[in-house]
Amino acid sequence: MNQNNRFRLLDGILLLDKPAGMSSNAALQRGRRLYRAAKGGHTGSLDPLATGLLPLCFGEATKLAGLLLGSDKAYEAGIRLGTTTDTDDADGQVLLQRPVPALDAAALQPALAALTGVLQQRAPVYSALKQGGEPLYARARRGEAIEAPVREVVVHAIRLLEFDGRDLRLEVTCGSGTYIRSLARDLGEALGCGAHITALRRLWVEPFRQPRMHGLEELERLAGEGGEQALDACLLPLGAGLAGFPRIELEPALAQRFGQGQRLRGPWAEAGMAAVWDGAGRPLGLARVDRDGRLSPQRLFNLAPGAVA
């Protein structure tokens, strides 16, 4: 196949159900090759152990990837008390085993409540955070002594779904940058017995609160049965990723000026980021409404011909 014909211009968002045992980048590359997308990116890594929602952005939708990375998210986590690992999950080496105190669901609630709100959270040593331009996990694998950074994160809510005295299942709603492995580790230390993640599933990413996810096996089957037309039917339009922003619609003359990168003055209601659309319902880009009332383009979209907006 001619290298120039291998990939195609494609704009859209795929709500991928990432399988366990695969890195987020490997999942992205599988999806990109399947769709023959010339350009692709994902919206924040999931650990190889984790499953669930990994939005893949193709084409112009990659301009939204960084914004979705900063969105609120929800997870379902399986946690085992009594065992600490070097990665804070079941993929790591056991560091310490301690007896689990006699606990019931009511006794867990104060410890869970202490892990909600604004927290100073230490990242796992085995994480993709970079120090000196290198991921921490690369240094950890070489056996280097690492002081993982502490960052401010927000945990909106933790709901206990199940507990049998040793294993528990939680639903966690949190802001960007929160490590569920760190929550498990800190919960275990608060209880005096240690803990690690045994299973992790991302349930949703704002604004995709009730996602229809597609697994790789399903997509490969669709490709075999219906080709690219069947695959493309699984994509959300770029505009679906803008649902969390205030919407501004421009009449044709202003839409043309905006598309040329010009700042516009108008009766924009409030300052902040907004999604800008034309009168035909096509997204033009993201803009910032300045305090002086001007609409300043931040990211402009150049959708492929025939793309669903």
Descriptive notes:
There is one protein chain. The chain has helices spanning 3-6, 24-35, 65-69, 105-113, 136-141, 180-191, 216-232, 252-259; strands spanning 12-18, 40-42, 51-58, 73-81, 83-85, 94-97, 117-122, 130-131, 134-135, 150-163, 167-174, 195-205, 214-215, 247-250, 264-265, 272-278, 283-289, 294-300. It starts with a helix and ends in a 9-residue tail after the last strand. A hairpin with a 4-residue loop joins strand 16 and strand 17. Helix 2 (24-35) packs parallel to helix 7 (216-232). The strands form four sheets. Strands 1, 2, 3, 4, 7, 10, 11, 12 and 13 form a nine-stranded mixed beta sheet that branches. A five-stranded mixed beta sheet has the order 14-16-17-18-15. The chain has a two-stranded antiparallel ribbon with strand order 5-6. The chain is 24% helix and 34% strand. The longest helix is centred in the last third of the chain and has 17 residues, at 216-232. The chain is globular, with a radius of gyration of 22 Å. With 309 residues, the chain is α+β, with helices and mostly antiparallel strands.
What is this structure, in a nutshell?
With 309 residues, the chain is of the alpha+beta class. Helix content is 24%, strand content 34%.
Percentage of residues in helical conformation: 10-25%
In total, the number of strands is: 18
Query: Helix and strand succession?
Result: HEHEEHEEEHEEEHEEHEEHEHEEEE
Taken as a percent bin, the fraction of beta residues is 25-35%
**Structural class, from secondary structure content?**
alpha+beta
Summarize model confidence as the mean pLDDT. Answer: 89
Q: What spatial form do the alpha-carbon principal axes imply? A: globular
Oligomer: single chain
Largest sheet: 9 strands, mixed
Low-confidence stretches: none
Amino- and carboxy-terminal Cα gap: 30 Å
**Separate helix tally:** 8
Rounded Rg? 22 Å
